[in-house]
Each structure stands twice: as C-alpha cells, then as structure tokens.
Amino acid sequence: MIRPTLFVVALCCACLPASAQQPAVQKFLQEGKLADGAAAMQKALDANANDAEAGFSLGVIQFFQAVEGLGQDQYRDGLLGGRRRQLPMMRLPVPENDSPEQISYAKARKIVENFLERLTVAEATLAKVKPSGVKLPLKVGQVRLDLNGDGVGTDEESLLEVMNAIMSGGGSGLDESVNQLVIAFDDGDVLWLRGYCHVMSSLCEVVLAYDWKDQFERTAHLFYPNVETPYQYLVDEGIGPLGGFNTQNILDVITIIHTVNYECTEPKRMQSALTHLETVVKLSRESWKLINAETDNDQEWLPNPKQTAAFSPNMRVTPEMQTQWFVFLDEADAILQGKKLLPFWRGIEGGFAPFQNSFPTNPKIGINLRKVFTDPQRLDLVLWIQGTGLH
Q1: Using an 8 Å Cβ cutoff, are 340 and 334 in contact?
Q2: Positive or negative CA dihedral for 143, 148, 154, 160?
Q3: Element (H or E) spanning 370, and its range?
Q4: What is the structure's pLDDT at 177?
Q5: Alpha helices in the chain (DSSP H)
Q6: Best CA proximity match to 12, nearest among 130, 124, 143
Q7: 308-345: b or e for each residue (b if 16 or more CB lie within 10 Å)?
Q8: Fewer Cβ in 10 A, N or C end of the chain?
Q9: 8 Å CB contact between 108 and 220
C-alpha cells in the first residue's frame, strides 16, 4: 500500500495527535492515556454510531493499544535484556527489566495470541468507518505509549523518541520539526491502516499455526534472560562482553536455523493467514480508489498524482508509480489465488550456474503458494531451500 522504506514512519504517523482543529483523540494520545481515550471514543460512538471521527479515532487508539500491549508483554519478560542496544530495530526506549518474569513456550504463544486479538479488535472498529469525508489531522511524534507498563507514558516513550532510538541508536536522528508534523488522515487512510492490521494478523496466524517449541527451548535464551527450558545451562551463561553476547552464542544462531523445522499443528490458522493477505490486496485497491477521487490537497499521507505529501512536499506519486503498484496487486492476487505459480529453481536440465544475472526458472514446474496455506505441510527450512520440502 505504501513504500516499504516508510513503513515504520507510517506506523508512527497512523494515529498521531493534533492540528489546528484538534480532534478529541489528541489529548489522550499525547498523554499516553490510551484506555481513557478508548473509553471516551466508545462513549461518543454510543451516542452517535455514525460519528466517523470517533470511530476512526477509536480504531487508531486500539491499534496503538495492540502495539503497546505487545511492548508491555515483552518488557515483562525482559526481551533482549542487556542486548537490545546492540541490535538495529530493537533499540526501543524501554528500561531494562531487572526482574523479568520467566517465559515459557506456552506464554510466548500467548503473547502472539494477545497481539492478534488486539489487532482484530482494531480492524473490526476501523471496518465500521465507512467513506464519508472523515478527516483526522494528527501531529507526528507526540503519541506516548506506556511501553513498560508503569501506568505512565513519558517523553522518553514518545514516538519521536522511539524513531530516534530505532534509526540512530538513541541520538537525535530525526529533526525536531517532525514533532510538529501534521498529517490529515482521511477515508483512504482508514483502509490503509486496516490493511496493516491484516498484514500483521497474517504473520501472527502463521506463527501460531506451527509448533516451534523445540526451537524455543533451545534458543530462547538469546532473547529472554529467564526461560523455562530443559537446557537450563544455556540460561545460566547470561549475557557476555560482546555487546551482551558470548562467543558460543554463534552456535545458538546456527541452532535457530537448524531448528526451523516445524509441524503444522493448527492448519486452520494458515487458511486465516491467506484470507488476511487476500484482504490486504482488496483494501489496497479500495484505498487508492478513494485517494484518486480526492480533489483537495490537505496534509496528505498517501497523495494522489495531483496532491503533495505532508511529510515531503517534493515527493510525488506519479501515474506511472500507481500503474506499477496496480500491476503488483494483480500479480499478488494471482499468486494468492494459485492462478500464477512462483518460480522453481530445481529440475532445470544441466542445473544452473551460480551468480547468474537472473533467477533460475523451471518452465515446467512452479510453486503454488496458495497450497502452502490451504494444505500446509511441515516447514523444514533446509528442505524448502533444497526444493523437496515444497509441494
């Protein structure tokens, strides 16, 4: 739906407080009081079920509650304790938990289930917001999330600080002007946010479809300091001097790859994952239809060719870019429907030489991605790469 390189920024912008006409949701987001905001927006909807701004605002808050809840769950279990600062994309401004709870495989699955449930709630709320000319002008960077569950959304837990932490390791990587950036989210962006709810829901369903207990018990100590595992000696090693890691942890990384060999124990979840992905394609088409019908030019997140983007006035979406995106959607739809096969790299007479300029393709055999979801088999990474694990 949007440029992949802007995905993280998009999440930050998808729901942020304020404009000249400050929507009611701004105060709650800026103060990090998501539960209070959700209650207030629900009260407004109870009074007027057709209040599109309240519905959009509630869906936005619920989306952030899903993200916040995931953060709190991971903080509680001490995710990447002592190692977070060394890993790109994990340098979140959340204090280290000195007393993390013990995490088990069952609890790890529950964290994913909880995140999926919250995303489902947010998407269902957004689905009720019908195209009506809704406008939700929100200010980038001023949303606060209670990432450590202490009941307070601090300045250090603002989205501006989150972005600075991720992009620059905690420095001032983003200009302060981002803190004042206003984006007026509208009908097309409702569908955009729904689409991302479905993307993440699909990932959750795939994770939950498979049994990865063996891998968890052998490698989870890389990510959590207090793991329930029959291999307690791995946990006892603790963190090391190399950015929190020990030299022997390279063996654990190899083990992660080796243990990507999962039995599909909940195949219905794979069908659900497929449905989510099919819905993403559908929503993207609908979103751009609404965006292209817009005649204003009001602080746009996703502009049509006649509009400018609020975050970068010099960046334009050209008709050619849109055409390429619609071609991609058609391709994705055909692949998900099983009408187009993915290229298969085995069974080519004479094999293929390494370092070729093009990906090898067997003209007679292809990979039916739809069957991966509708008839899921054991996910064995090595056999998938080798080719015999696919069907």
Answers
A1: yes
A2: negative
A3: helix 369-374
A4: 66
A5: 7-13, 25-31, 34-47, 52-76, 105-127, 159-168, 187-209, 213-219, 232-236, 249-258, 267-292, 319-336, 369-374, 381-386
A6: 143
A7: bbbbeeeeebeeeeeeebeeebeebbebbeeebbeebb
A8: C
A9: yes
Query: Tens digit of pLDDT for each residue in 297-318?
Result: 888 889 999 999 887 878 889 9
- Average model confidence (pLDDT) for the chain? 87
Distance CA 369, CA 28 (A): 43
Highest mean pLDDT among 39-48, 136-145, 170-179, 344-353: 39-48
- By residue count, the chain amounts to 391
Q: How far apart are CA 315 and CA 377, in angstroms?
A: 44
**Do the Cβ atoms of 63 and 119 come closer than 8 Å?**
yes
DSSP 341: P
Are the C-beta atoms of 155 and 32 separated by less than 8 Å?
no
What gap in Å lies between CA 217 and CA 236, rounded to an integer?
Answer: 14
Residues 16 and 8 sit within 8 Å (Cβ to Cβ): no
Which residue would you say has higher pLDDT here, 301 or 375?
375
Cβ atoms within 10 Å, residue 233: 9
